[in-house]
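User: Can you write out an input/output pair for a complex, sequences first and structure second?

Assistant: Here is one pair. Inputs:
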Amino acid sequence: MSNDIINVNNLNFKYSQQGDWLFKDFNFKIERHEWVAVIGHNGSGKSTLARLIDGLLQPQSGSIMVDQQTMSAENVWEIRKKIGMVFQNPENQFVGANVAEDVAFGLENQAVPYKLMHQRVKTALQRVNMWRFAEQEPVNLSGGQKQRVALAGVIALQPEIIILDEATSMLDPEGRRDVIQLIHDLKVQHNFTIISITHDIDEAALADRVIVLDDGKIIESAPPAQVFLHGKELSHLGLAVPFSEKVKAALVKRRITVPVQYYTEQRMVDWICQSISNK
Amino acid sequence: MNKVLLGRYLPGSSFIHRLDPRSKLVLSFYFIIVIFLANNWSTYLFMLFVVAGCILLAQIKLGFFWKGVQPLIWLILFTVLLQILFSRGGTIFWQWGPFSLTQTGIVSGIYVFFRFVLIIFMSTLLTLTTPPLEIAGALESLLKPLKKIHFPVYEVSLMLSIALRFVPTLIDEAAKIMNAQRSRGVNFDSGSLRQRLNAVVPLLIPLFVSAFNRAEDLATAMEARGYHGGEGRTKYRINQWHLRDTVSVVFFLLVTIVMILLRTW
């Protein structure tokens, strides 16, 4: 029980007074140091869930517990200190006039003293490999670089939980790879609890657990290898299928027997090489 | 369009670049007041030397200052012409109806011209050597005394710095929307005045809507990072007053004294 860092109980939420419930009697748990990927089609409630956990939206009923504290109007700022969020649009979440000031913004809000602030900004920017851009203005940065700055802003705050709300969805493949690699390294080093809301299957594949959300309901919660096996169901929900599963499907069409369990790309290559040399 | 707003600040490490933005801001305003003390050729000549000295210290090519004057050149020439044609006194060289060309007219025309150019040079020097965000920061710390009369200093400076930060972003977006509408057949640069005004609507409304979306995203991101008002925050950027700032203030006080002496001379 004490191992749960986030615990959502019987949550009910809808945006307007009339209209349908988006979440009805919703229950959700995340363990400390777990990396959870939440996937689902547009409008399935992924982003809403993230905003509820951060206290940016208030549920109509039910409780949200973050790190043993039940969220209420009084302690929402206290809880927010434990959560770092990176949003989708790199342009619109850049508050500062330049890179260093943007990273410092969260620290300024927490009234961190001058010297410590400069030190933490520097280490955070070095961590994401953006220190040499410290004095640059956002116009001169690419989308991937801006998201790295946003991540640095989160690291500088030293939160327990990092929520990535489709943080890579507006980036080009290269920037996306960079950011995902960076998140992975951060997870290994600092052992944050990570909730990544994503459409990107590579990002989901790195997680400990994948939660498939459909219209405010969890329809599956399992390790990625298990979730990715249901290729067909996933594509019915409007989700992408990992490349190795696509290869498998194509092979099945050509009447070639393939292994049942999920293989990563590397294992898939090994398996193909093996089966060819065995012939 | 981009060049005008973005190409202004020139990074450098000269004496003027390293001055505290607060002293730069105050001194360039002070300079504008001092220049109105000038009333004869010796005072103008002296001011010319002062400005030339400042420009030399900043190590910036004169061409950039010319760019600062350029947009105002017609206003300057118009004012100079008014001065020349309508001033009376001294020897009359030529007269026709209400217009006259007199000695005083020509002299005051030249004075007005120099007054304009010197003020523009000095303010260009300020914007060329100071990044906009430092000007915003300087304004905040200079406005601090107004907190006593409940003027929302922090909020105003936050607004200013966010506005400055989003200017290039919104210019980019305006250009994008313009091209997108052009590719769908909107004609922005021909037709009667009325037609042109109508053509601006498909540019303005999407820009307006997207500004709202941006504002909402930004507010959420700020809230998620713990922003709850200007109270109880520390600052990342703190201006420091150096010896060179004191030196420049003293220098400008000396300039004022010399000006007052030269006025009566």
